[in-house]
Design brief:
Keywords: Cell outer membrane, Membrane, Signal, TonB box, Transmembrane, Transmembrane beta strand, Transport. This is TonB-dependent receptor. It is a multi-pass membrane protein. Its main location: membrane. The protein has about 675 residues and is mainly β. The strands form 8 sheets. It has a 22-stranded antiparallel beta barrel. Strands 3-10-11-7-8 form a 5-stranded mixed beta sheet, with no helix packed on it. The chain has a two-stranded antiparallel ribbon with strand order 1-2. The protein is globular, with a radius of gyration of 25 Å.
């Protein structure tokens, strides 16, 4: 199963023509090239520091959030990235659902199939689950996104990688930020940055409250982050990272049928209200990293971390009490043979222990216990990376990683028998990439990589038999990725990238629901899928006052072989992913301190379930925002204002894939407002 011949031929012909024309124009304008001195961007998410244009995979770099952003979720940070699609940003009991080239689209809650990293420490657990409710946009600096499957770099569940970095402290300062808005939105933030000789520290505290657009949609959370950096000398660096998040309430209004949406968009599902669905979360983490330059051509890095998470969730059919310990160690050694070649080797050891108890939900109160089990996931990974330039303009990246995984389930509820069990997997994953510079302003790249993804502990424990233990019918999914593209700069005003990719997967993990357990997600393996796609990203500087970005993503993701006892899904579109995505942003900055920004998105139609009989219409959203900077000696005052969904579009912030009873839809807020002020003192 592939894209229709005429479509794929047209895409490749246009791609080849653009590549030829761009290369020809660059070669015939040497004077332009000699004056092209755009700032190079260095990235590290590929586990080696490289110039972004020299990396033979699709990588996006994102600037820190702006003052005028609402800073309600990380969606605001990453949504304008080609190949990235985000849903569920208004149901904080389910968390933001992020997919990169389709990886992660199956998640019932949280993030699956995408590796999340903060300051080099994994936020994703070794089984592939990721929650970012402990990451506040106000604490973030730069962000990098790898849009290719890279299990060779990061192991299990690395269909893409999002690497966040916290703010850097350039000089000591103190800052408070107060904001409020529609649907009971309130946010209070305080930041303190200290820079003194060889020591820097940034501390961040925030509290967020939201009544929500729908009924039974309350949410509030408190978050603390701290990063201490100590450089005893030029060759050594120590980082200590602390994080704590307490979210005592995040209500879940549930999915609605289309008739219910048309009757009242604000309503919660009646059963969700009766069962008081929602969650509370408490999480803390401590991390320590050490890096040392052994010699000019040798360096090493060591990192250790520990995370605890206590989760209490109420879903319509059950109450879940989960206590998690997650800890790990990683280390690496880098040897630079010369300026054109380096080798890096390292390891990742990660351990996850979940203590799970499930009870019946008796109108929001614990009933009888139905599951009591300990779930453990161990992942040991060892990797080798080599980057070298055999020719002046050719850069080659080679990577190989071996992962050994062991999963254990210990059944403590023995009334219905002992459902304890264990499973083991091992995988070898390569990455091969070539990047060739046609000129100082244009390069072409091509890469081959593989990925694999085990079912998460939550997915394994979602057993359609209703018994405890794991669903042993689930197997890991695997992926093979082929990718080619161009990266370039033009006229000292434009940075652009174009990527074509094809991903073939086996045993794709797909969610479904059954009548016996409404609103509970179960999982099955599809035979195979094929994903063909095109991604275009353009960042441009129009003049000293205007800049912007344009992104387009085309996704033709289909089941290749997927037949069940009841249905044949072959050649159907994978649900939950729009075929077309368009994003644009225009920013204005005046010398007077005024800043304005507008974002416009078009999300194409998509399907809600495997049979492709329920189609979700396309929609468009326009957001505008602005701020003004007033300076008084060492003080800065920044009032800001934003309007979300200015066009008052009626659309859905989440689609519950394959939901039983047609309850696919979670309505998004209509037009809404926020505003506030930031006060900063530079010490």
């Amino acid at each position: 199963m592939v894209i229709k011949n005429i479509q794929i031929k047209t895409i490749y012909l246009l791609f080849a023509q653009l590549l030829f024309c761009t290369a020809y124009s660059q070669k015939n304008n040497p004077d332009t090239l000699s004056t092209l001195e755009l700032k190079q961007v260095t990235i590290s998410s590929t586990r080696i520091k490289s110039i972004a244009t020299d990396v033979p995979v699709s990588v996006s770099t994102i600037r820190p959030p702006q003052i005028y952003n609402q800073q309600l979720s990380v969606k605001e940070v990453i949504e304008g990235t080609p190949g990235v699609f985000i849903l569920n940003d208004n149901n904080f009991a389910q968390d933001v659902r992020i997919s990169i080239r389709g990886f992660g689209s199956r998640a019932a809650f949280g993030i699956r199939g995408v590796k999340i990293v903060l300051d080099g420490i994994p936020e994703s657990t070794p089984d592939g689950q990721g929650q970012i409710d402990n990451i506040d946009p106000g604490f973030l600096g730069s962000t990098e996104i790898i849009r290719s499957p890279v299990s060779g770099l990061y192991g299990n569940a690395s269909g893409g990688v999002i690497s966040f970095e916290t703010k850097e402290v350039e000089e000591s300062y103190s800052e408070i930020r107060l904001s409020a808005g529609s649907f009971g939105f309130q946010k209070y933030q305080a930041t303190s940055g200290i820079k003194k000789n060889d020591l820097s520290n940034v501390a961040f505290l925030s509290h967020t409250r939201l009544r929500g657009y729908r009924n039974h949609n309350n949410f509030y959370t408190t978050l603390f982050n701290n990063k201490l950096t100590y450089n005893p000398d030029e060759k050594n660096e120590i980082n200590i990272l602390l994080n704590y998040n307490y979210s005592p309430e995040a209500q879940d209004p549930g999915g609605l049928t289309l008739d219910e949406v048309n009757s009242d968009r604000n309503q919660a599902r009646a059963l969700n209200f009766v069962q008081n669905t929602g969650e509370s979360v408490e999480q803390g983490r401590v991390g320590l990293s050490y890096s040392r330059e052994i010699e000019k051509n040798q360096s090493m890095e060591l990192t250790g971390f520990y995370t605890f998470r206590e989760f209490y969730g109420r879903i319509p059919f059950a109450i879940i009490d989960l206590k998690r310990d997650f800890y790990g160690f990683n280390g690496s050694y880098t040897y630079s043979i010369n300026e054109k070649a380096l080798i890096k080797t390292g390891f990742d050891l990660e351990f996850q222990n979940d203590c799970r108890q499930n009870f019946t939900n008796e109108e929001g109160v614990e009933g009888s216990i139905i599951i009591d089990q300990d779930e453990k996931f161990y992942n040991s990974g060892f990797f080798l990376i080599s980057e070298f330039s055999p020719l002046k303009r050719l850069n080659i990246l080679l990577n190989l990683r071996y992962d050994l995984i062991k999963i254990e389930g210990g059944d403590n509820y023995l009334i219905d028998g002992d459902d304890s069990g264990d499973r083991s997997f091992d995988r070898l994953n390569p990455l091969i990439g070539l990047n060739y510079s046609l000129s100082k302003a244009l390069s072409i790249f091509s890469s081959f990589s593989t990925g694999f993804e085990t079912p998460s502990l939550n997915e394994l424990s979602s057993n359609p038999s209703g018994m405890g233990g794991f669903n042993n019918n689930l197997d890991p999914q695997s992926a093979v990725n082929f990718e080619s593209g161009i990266k370039g700069r033009a006229w000292n005003k434009v940075i652009y990238s174009i990527s074509l990719f094809r991903i073939e997967t086996e045993n794709e993990l797909i969610p479904y629901q059954i009548e016996e357990f409404p609103d509970r997600e179960f999982y099955e393996n599809a035979g195979s899928t094929i994903r063909n796609g095109l991604e275009i990203g353009i960042d441009l500087v129009i003049n000293d006052q205007f800049n912007g970005k344009l992104n387009y993503t085309y996704s033709d993701f289909k089941f290749d072989q997927f037949v069940t006892d009841e249905n044949n899904f072959n050649n159907n579109q994978i649900p939950g992913i729009p075929q077309n995505l368009f994003y644009s942003q225009l920013n204005y900055s005046a010398n007077s301190g005024l800043k304005l920004s507008a974002e416009f998105q078009i999300i194409g139609e998509m399907y809600a379930e495997n049979t492709n009989s329920v189609k979700v219409d396309n929609f468009s959203v326009l957001n505008i925002m602005g701020s003004h900077t007033l300076s008084f000696d060492k003080w800065e005052l920044n009032p800001f204002l934003g309007i979300n969904n200015l066009l008052n579009t009626e659309y859905f912030s989440n689609i519950r894939i394959n939901a039983f009873g047609g309850r696919f839809y979670e309505p998004a807020p209509k037009i809404n407002f926020y505003g506030g002020v930031r006060i900063k003192l530079n010490h």
